[in-house]
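Sample entry (153 residues):
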Amino acid sequence: MKEIIVYEMVFKGEIKGRENIICVPFQEKYWKDYMEIYNVCFSRMRDALEIQPVFFYSDYSQFKDKADNTFLCLQGGDIAGAVSCYGNELDDLVVNPLFQRKGYGRQLLLWGMNCIKERGYDEIVLHVAEWNQNAVKLYLETGFEIMKKEKVR
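Predicted structure, serialized as tokens:
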């Protein structure tokens, strides 16, 4: 089994930049599209790190408790991406492959950070697998710092 290293990253201070997207609360009618995007976005990493199942979501019951904290960026009726905000934690930032490499990841990150700040939190936390170097780079560029490195497997 492959080793899995996860970084706990923390952002403190003022957010530099403002997102130019609008996110809406998750609605169940988007479940099938969201599930497909989520599974595709995480499948490469899950496969590389030998995490089973490779396609995590298969039923809405697995997700329904997260729905109230998940927000979607819609473009022309399609999900461009999504981000979840739980208290002061950002999670499950995904960008639809059709919209990747167009700045949506950064925009979703900024949107989530501002959402958490507007809820009154001074510190924003996220966790990211060391394997996902593109995400790690984005988070560092945005002002997050690695606070802890943990071997989870």
